[in-house]
């Protein structure tokens, strides 16, 4: 993790300002996380409220039987750590960067009480949480309504880094609720149609537009 300083920090403060979300001045840090770096370790309360400026991240949880599941994604203009801000007792999920990820970081120890008393911020946070809940409900309904081809195309586009898809098959099967055999069958189809090209254990996206068309059915459905 890198904490930006001086001009590097000022560039994001000037060009990605989120001052409109608050009714008071907030002095924010700017953090950069590399691919696969943990932004928050599971079970450990974060010290910051994050707001994602660039990049993507994944949310993981470990079940009582030791199985680790991918449960959701975090994209640009979304918060990380909002549940810990709102709840004194909350089991923190693991947040891992999928690509290089740059965030504003607001220290809890300095601003927590002010944030919780700021009606303007809380209204914006409520909107974010309601959209998040709606998305999770839609994701469940999509698993019943759409074939794997559409859902996998969307998943590949969400997780690829610079056109390279690297996710483990077992993680994908668990997240999408499909069998290993079914997943391999659709990946083979994508390769035969030249949407993807296999590179070792990974896949290079060759026809992103074709994947976007498949994924678009989820958003329009």
Automatic annotation (TrEMBL):
InterPro entries assigned to the protein according to its UniProt record, in alphabetical order: cNMP-bd_dom, cNMP-bd_dom_sf, RmlC-like_jellyroll, WH_DNA-bd_sf
Residues annotated as domain Cyclic nucleotide-binding: 12-132
SUPFAM superfamilies registered for this protein in UniProt: cAMP-binding domain-like, Winged helix' DNA-binding domain
Keywords: Activator
Pfam family, one: cNMP_binding
PROSITE patterns documented for this protein: CNMP_BINDING_3 (PS50042)
Domain of life: Bacteria
Name listed for the protein in its UniProt record: Transcriptional regulator YeiL
